[in-house]
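Predict the holo structure. Ligand: S-adenosylmethionine.
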Amino acid sequence: LVSRYHRRLIRFYHQRFLSWLRTRLTGISREERAFRYVLMNSTHGKAESVLSTLDEWCCKFECVTNTGPEKGQILSSVVQRLTPVSVLQLGTCCGYSAICITRLLIPGAKLYTLEQDPQTADVAEEMMLVAGLKHTQFQVITGSAPEAIPRFKPLLGVETFDFVFLSRGQGADHLRDLRLLENERLLCKGSVILANSVTHPGAAAFLHSVRSDPRYLTSFYPCSAPYEKDIPDGMEELAIL
Ligand SMILES: C[S@@+](CC[C@H](N)C(=O)[O-])C[C@H]1O[C@@H](n2cnc3c(N)ncnc32)[C@H](O)[C@@H]1O
């Protein structure tokens, strides 16, 4: 087991344990640490510069995204293909993938991105503003998915989403979130959902469920984990037929 999973274990040690220790010792969250680096080292107003500075931070210090450049490219190509008007992201973190999406939106389109931790949501909002994105193009919502999703229609005035990026967990949450979005009628024919990190063990039930459901057309994008060429990862796209 150790030889099979040692890379994941090392990654866990760096990303979780050391990060947790730094936060305990300094009182500064890992998202805030990444934001301070971006403030000092990026060209303000340029989304590409904020993304590449975040990549630099994640490579050199600690990873604050489950997307990164390779998956960011997949996400970007889906957004460019769909030209969605109403977009939802579940799980904002420090705003990496939110910036990836928002910088490509057509005029009049908007990203709604949900983050459960209020401090992290504030950092993401600041990060997106530093990237030159405007409040007319995005809204960071604070709340936990199971409670927030049923409030989206009255809160946001959105009937359905054209594109949804499921990115708050590593699989098990994807199915719950998908079912909730369906129950609340926030998806319609033609809506596209992209689920992040679907190779984690918890995502097996999600993949099985969507791939065997005739209501969806699914495609799998193999890739590697952010900044880890040797760790396989993947994203699943579902189009509602
Ligand atoms: C892995 S990060 C997302 C990173 C993001 N995709 C990116 O690359 O920039 C997951 C985020 O989801 C948030 N989250 C976890 N559970 C949530 C929930 N139930 N509702 C809303 N956000 C949640 C976490 O606080 C965390 O910031």
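Residues 65-67, 90-91, 93, 96-97, 114-117, 120, 144-145, 167-168, 196 surround S-adenosylmethionine (CB under 6 Å). The radius of gyration is 17 Å.
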